[in-house]
Amino acid sequence: MRTSIVFNQNETSKVNFFEVLQSQDNLQYTLNCDWNLVKTYVTWPSDNTPSFVSNLITAEGPYNEDAMAAVLESYEWLVMPEVDSAQ
Q: Which of 11, 32, 42, 74 could bridge 20 with an S-S bond, Cβ 3.0-4.6 Å?
């Protein structure tokens, strides 16, 4: 079982990346023009919530795998594919 939380990208410095499945280099972000409102998420592979989560002011969740899949399907997380202008 995996558990995830969503939070504002400006709090990524609070994440202990040794406790989650993502690295700082492969975080995914929402599409938002205001960088202060951009969100990201992290996932961990157990029921035990990492200690840093309590320090995240903007945390949303925790979400189980099904609930997180629904979050990622929302318009906020949709990434438009790049269009090749040469076609």
A: 42
